[in-house]
Design a protein that fits this description.
Two copies of one chain form a homodimer. The first copy, chain A, is of the alpha+beta class. The first copy, chain A, folds into three domains: 90 residues, OB fold (Dihydrolipoamide Acetyltransferase, E2P); 254 residues, BirA Bifunctional Protein, domain 2; 116 residues, Gyrase A, domain 2 (2-Layer Sandwich). Helix content of chain A is 28%, strand content 26%. Chain A has 15 helices and 23 strands. In chain A, the strands form five sheets. An eight-stranded mixed beta sheet of chain A has the order 6-9-10-22-21-20-17-11, sandwiched between helices. A five-stranded mixed β-barrel of chain A has the order 1-2-3-5-4. In chain A, β14 and β15 form a beta hairpin. In chain A, α4 crosses α6 and α7 crosses α11. At the A-B interface, β1, α3, α4, β6 and β7 of A face β1, α3, α4, β6 and β7 of B.
Chain lengths: 575, 575
Amino acid sequence: MNRTHNNGELRITDVNKIVELKGWVAKKRNLGGLIFIDIRDKFGITQIAVKPDNANYEVANQLKNEYVIQVKGKVIERESKNKDLPTGDIEIDCIELKILNTSIQPPIIIADNTDALEDTRLKYRYLDLRRPCMQKFFITKSKITQAIREYMISQDFLELETPILAKSTPEGARDYLVPSRLYEGEFYALPQSPQIFKQLYMIAGFEKYFQIARCFRDEDLRADRQPEFTQIDVETSFLNAEEIQTIIEGMFKHVFKKILNVDLKTPFRRISYEDSMDTYGSDKPDLRFGMVLFDCANLFNHIEFMAGGAIKGIKVENANSYTRKNLDELTNLAKKYKAKGLAYLRYQNNELSGSIMKFLDEAKQKEIISQLNLKEGDLILITYGKLKIVQISLGALRSFIAKKEGLLDPNRFEFAWIVDWPVFEWSEEDNRWYASTHPFTAPKDECLQYMKTNPEKCYANAYDIVLNGYELGSGSLRIYNQDVQKLMFETLGLTDEDIKNKFGFFTEALKYGTPPHGGIGMGLERITMIMTNTDNIKDVVAFPKTQSARDLMCESPSSVEEKQLIDVHIDVRKS
Amino acid sequence: MNRTHNNGELRITDVNKIVELKGWVAKKRNLGGLIFIDIRDKFGITQIAVKPDNANYEVANQLKNEYVIQVKGKVIERESKNKDLPTGDIEIDCIELKILNTSIQPPIIIADNTDALEDTRLKYRYLDLRRPCMQKFFITKSKITQAIREYMISQDFLELETPILAKSTPEGARDYLVPSRLYEGEFYALPQSPQIFKQLYMIAGFEKYFQIARCFRDEDLRADRQPEFTQIDVETSFLNAEEIQTIIEGMFKHVFKKILNVDLKTPFRRISYEDSMDTYGSDKPDLRFGMVLFDCANLFNHIEFMAGGAIKGIKVENANSYTRKNLDELTNLAKKYKAKGLAYLRYQNNELSGSIMKFLDEAKQKEIISQLNLKEGDLILITYGKLKIVQISLGALRSFIAKKEGLLDPNRFEFAWIVDWPVFEWSEEDNRWYASTHPFTAPKDECLQYMKTNPEKCYANAYDIVLNGYELGSGSLRIYNQDVQKLMFETLGLTDEDIKNKFGFFTEALKYGTPPHGGIGMGLERITMIMTNTDNIKDVVAFPKTQSARDLMCESPSSVEEKQLIDVHIDVRKS
């Protein structure tokens, strides 16, 4: 018996048809002898009716939730229609009913609303994924992926594979290692990204590469990270940064139109890294709302404890309802981002009040009200000290308040390119320079002179794409000159020995006519999360790991047989 | 300066256009002052002409092979046209010439014909991949992949991801292990295939899954194997084997039409495993030629050393030129496949001759000529003994001779489904039963009764797809009943403890309304090899490993820092 229809498609126009359905028992009700069964598949739910005199009544009576059944029957009009269900005008008068498989009582409710704990959902992930809301996440993710492919291929890109069994080059995040069986004491590593391989594709002349590529990082996980994730990986030869950005804008335009029927306006805004930090206190600004940072050093640098560094503020409008407790909360948040403190001023009934009033004489107050253009209900939040800390702490307050005030419309999509990034970042902790992204990012030509002497003056043709406060991806033009690449490695403190061992083959490759090239890598999960309006990455990874990198369903990682360890020449270290 | 055209597209109709090109110097010739440069990119080659009075003459003179250049110039008609080149009617009169990057002398010739050793090609893979013939392999592979996706998506399949950091379940091939940092002494494993996860997708109700999935096997490599490879992985619910096969036939029809413009006839032939062995001596028969096996026990079982088992033969036509040396070669081949010996008979000038003539009286000879319908020049090759060995050795002879005789037309594509496979295989070596494919293959209902007592009588709803003597993929209906799954594991000798540790979560999952399901996994590299007519898997893997699982370019695997080993709680074993 074959299925004639899925469980989401029968309508009143199908009345009198003989149909055959398959699926899971979502609900069974026995109404004084008459049995109603909701049969569910990924397309929807259809109601089956079995009358007491029906030959299948006994079978129907045995059914429990999540039994797999097949049903043959006649489509009839329902007496009491269900307007919440696309198939709610009809039901199936049962002719044949067969149980394909049974089910014991599931530990979680198979419906959009579930009260199951996350650990239970992860352990029984195959049941959790039966819930219609979960199915939608993965259906959408699959469609996003294909829309990306469609577009990239339409732009003459080739999808090309790169190895998963790669080489360990521990710069940045920690590698996952794979011990080799044939070479005692040697290891493969899972790639943190296909960076080097995609650049080699450019050196090999492929010109336009993309890949929906799995990447791996053995890092302590945050809520929005997974040990393995999927990157939309792109690399091109002979194009400049604007041209690469235009391709990616076209990709998002296509994807948002196709999946959400949203028309994105292109080109996206370009904001320099320094401007973004200065205006939004973030390198991934949420542009759905204002509340921009302003400089107010001239108003407050007479106050001793605020003076000597940057002084900046943001203005919260209609903030009369903010209590002392709210302000304490904001102060704690600012301090979490290392601000020395949070000064605030409120403007109510034409009067200023707040934490620094005793330092403000009447003239100063007037100057503040005028310069900051204060209106009834305005609240000014001010941080001071080191510029970067002032920016970041205000940026955090800005985001926190926007969320609290409901300014984050999930149906608005404000893209931007953050451009002109510093090439290097100084680590106080390690007392050395690190690459802001990775050591293949090309410094701008005019900055090359500073590489050795003033790394902080080096800016790159690097560009992040941001959306609604999230970084979607990070790209740059790459170094294609072997001498610049060597200079870069040296600035990062790599010895000749290090360079040879880790990147020898790559610096060698650069010698053979490497074309100018650049690209970008973007997080598929992040994009899917925003497009499906969830903030839990586990909603878009079908079989995720917990925050401690465990698969609760498979119970992995797990111990293995001694023989397996012997085969690959390793031993568990005694701790 | 931006490119206006690629290097493969300019034609006589473009004459007088001012164009801008980028690419690599493929060749430079200095003809008495006039310099000709061939500029190459992945699209083709265009000739640049630089006259002695040209302002760019000095730059042109500096050029060496594989320099990256950009050229602006006017398209002019060539004096002596090159018919071998699509752009051979024109050349570019140089206006501007700029060197984008230099190159040292490449260690291999960048052209279709190269005399470089494979090790050199692999070490400088980025140069090897610049060769036009290599580019074509990967362009085709990329197109095949996308054609597969197009078709599967058109059939309502979702492409869904499965984890690479999975669990070790060592049944069959050896797992690659990944030590865990957070769980001392525990390991992830790279998946040998997404088998369990795709079945869990079915249990989760996704119904139609596919994935172009990376798989990993730590096995000793044969010429056509790589440690990581790509599988076209498919799984469906509620369909029977024929329905699944029909979908896959549609897929190949689409792919072959799109890539090779070849119309495949569907449905493909179905041949049972036993028939295939009996007729072709192979479970992956090459159907482009006949030379089928025939039974001839009645003709020869009076000969003592041949009697007591199967006696089968094949007929080679027009074999008069076969020498004694040829026949010795065939005998050695038969023996390699464990045949006790090879008997042969030739029919020349209306007379039989050969190795067993002394056992054949005149009546017997007549019987042979008549029953085998012998014609001038026929050669009969006969093996005898254990049925399976008789079949396999003749199958090997059949393939060998077909290749030698040039019967293997690379432009013919003879697909077939080999169906009804035995569930189990007996291992003499280990004195136990193994699963012929994997332990999730469903025995046919009527065979369930034999599971415990007569495993050799169990056949499965399993199907391999074969093409021109290669196995492209292997599929089956799966076990969806938990008791059958348990019985299967027990037959394979797994203890309750084993089952619980390795597959506990999976047998648990089967309890919650598992739908009937089945699928297939097919090798993308194998398909690409046949479609691009190469027999070297390294031609279709961009960055392959050697037969000893080494990446000669990256020099991986490699030793790692002690700290990395400490982090993941392992030590290299002292040997």
